[in-house]
Amino acid sequence: MLDAGIAARPVALSRARAIERSATPAATSAAAYPAADSAPDAGPNAGPNAMGAALGLLGDEWSLLIIRHAFIGARRFVDFKQRLAISDAVLSARLAALVDGGVLRRVPSPVAGRHEYALTRSGLDLWQLLLAIWAWEQEHVEGQAGRLPHMLHATCGQRFRPLLRCSACSTPASVDDVDATFGPSGTFARSLPAGSNRRRPSGARSATAEGPDMFPETMAIIGSRWSSATVGAAFMGATRFGEFERLLGAPPTVVSDRLRSFVDLGVLEHVRDPEGPDRSSYRLSAKGRALFGVVATLLSWGERWLRADDGPAVVAVHRACGHGFRPELACSACRQTLQRDDVTID
Ligand SMILES: [Zn+2]
Ligand SMILES: [Zn+2]
What we know:
Number of domains: 1
Number of strands: 11
Order of helices and strands: HHHHHHEEHHEEEEHHHHHEEHHEEE
Largest sheet: 3 strands, antiparallel
Bound molecules: zinc ion
């Protein structure tokens, strides 16, 4: 359960609240952090790093849907309730978790004695991740192009899709253009979401409310511990069954189950080797590689708001310009860098 996961990570959550109180994003310079070998609390017992904390908080479809609706005007409990096909208990738990995680805050309601929910600065900063998820689902998931709303760039007045670029040099960037290594807090174990927020069955959807399958394949990928770990391992270069098994530290049945489901989703390709099954490999397909936008914006947000005390989880360098890679999104129509307030739903 997500809530169990939240309770299991007091370090990350107190950090999120502390950051929110200071209302300033975490420093972004890796140089401000000690090296891994000098960090006092680095080690197998240290808490989740920025990736693990971000996945623990956001690797849940209800949470992402609540955030999405907060962006488009939902504030009261009843607003979320009406827009989402969600039970009171689940909605209460998710809202509480998002408040604990520093993404939402409770604000007084005009109705005496009541409160509403508003996005915090870190919550508002999730717009890039939501846009990256929307773009990937729109482009790569069957049936989503006709179902998801279009996005409008207010600055140029045109419909667009977001282009992922390096914020230092404004050049488009894909997974092939970025060298990523683990940072001071970067172990694979600490990059996993704390707890195992199991994906729930979709349930019935009404005509006016969104069920929990708005981003079906994104949630199949980041919505559970082993799934996000599998895709993380693939992005780290794992291709052989044994490499996935070693990185995940999971039983072979779990590993083969996840690999098979990612092959079914078209995110991984199973490349068979005629010399024997031991030599076959699993490689990211074009669809899988396009997930880089989601992975990069999620990690970048995590490093800004939930960074571990001993430094970044991942140090990424844009090969073309040599600067630390921080993603920005640009409008495909006018090529200007997108700003949060310039993006609307058409
Ligand atoms: Zn660059
Ligand atoms: Zn534009």
